[in-house]
Amino acid sequence: MSEVIKSIVRDYSEREGLGLTGGQLIMLDTYASMLVKTNEVMNLTNITDDEGIAVRHFIDSLTLVPYIRAEQEKAGKKDLTVIDVGTGAGFPGVVLKIAMPELRLTLLDSLNKRLGFLNEVSTALGLTGVKTVHGRAEDAGRDKALREKYDISCARAVANLPVLCEYCLPFVKQGGAFLAMKGNVDEEEQASSKAISVLGGRKEKTDKFLLPGTDMNRSIVVVRKIRPTPASYPRQAGKPSKNPL
After folding, report:
1. Distance from C-alpha of 61 to C-alpha of 12, rounded to nearest angstrom
2. pLDDT band for position 186 (cuts 50, 70, 90)
């Protein structure tokens, strides 16, 4: 059990008023142990030291909590549907589910073996209301079972913002939000205005800050879904990245 991870995340939780319990800190620690062990046989992350996992994976993911709380307040309910697009090793989705167990979470990834790991994590931690979906975002975004079914879509460092909008906005129901987690976003932000508009969104705000405990720039872009995404989007797999809107 890593006291380093628990201490760093506990301090952040107390400072930001997240209210994480001892039980939730233990769940995060278990998740970290499983991540490091599985990473020996499967490429999940380059960050394997306790402090790195605590700050660059866990705290980075937890920076979304206030935004999701704002969406809960707006919707007047706690059990919002959230899809983590290109979840990889489960960031931010699994961390958000641990911190906010009331969320109904879908983890989407194109690599089935990563989803196998995330299913093992969910079972080990006793997480309920978690679904894994294997597929590319462009294909999943056309699936009637997933398209415009979510209160929130989120993604962390998956692609440039114009491309990310085409991956993520089709999942969001009208009135919901896409939360993009980025580093330096200035150039991408300007380039994304067309994509956001075409896909049925409106940018509400961009918050820029340093990841706590580091000198790393972070940005969270909030895009509101104000009308349905046209049926022609997302384009077929590979098109958005090759020819961004």
Report:
1. 12
2. confident
What span, in angstroms and rounded, lies between the C-alpha atoms of 206 and 222?
6
Instruction: Write down the residue that tokens 């890593």 correspond to.
Output: 2
C-alpha torsion angle, residues 157, 162, 164, 170 (rounded to 10): 160
Nearest-CA neighbor of 233 among 139, 133, 135, 157? 139
pLDDT digits (tens, 9 = 90+) for 124-137: 999 999 999 999 99
Could you read off the pLDDT of 49-59 as tens digits, one per residue? 999 999 999 99
Q: Which residue has the tokens 């142990």?
A: 33
Q: What is the CA radius of gyration of the chain?
A: 17
Question: Which pLDDT score is estimated for 242?
Answer: 94
Please check whether residue 96 is in contact with residue 156, taking contact to mean a CB–CB distance below 8 angstroms: no
Question: Which of the two residues, 211 and 1, has the higher pLDDT score?
Answer: 211
CA dihedral defined by 231, 80, 65, 146, rounded to 10 degrees?
-30
On whether the CB atoms of residues 236 and 138 are closer than 8 A, the answer is: yes
DSSP string, 6-19: HHHHHHHHHHHT--
Closest CA to 2 of 49, 45, 37, 47: 49
Please name the amino acid found at residue 72: Q
Sign of the C-alpha dihedral, residues 122, 69, 171, 93? negative
The pLDDT of residue 1 is above 80: no
Handedness of CA 194, 195, 197, 201 (dihedral sign): negative
Q: State how far the Cα of 1 lies from the Cα of 170, in Å rounded to an integer.
A: 40
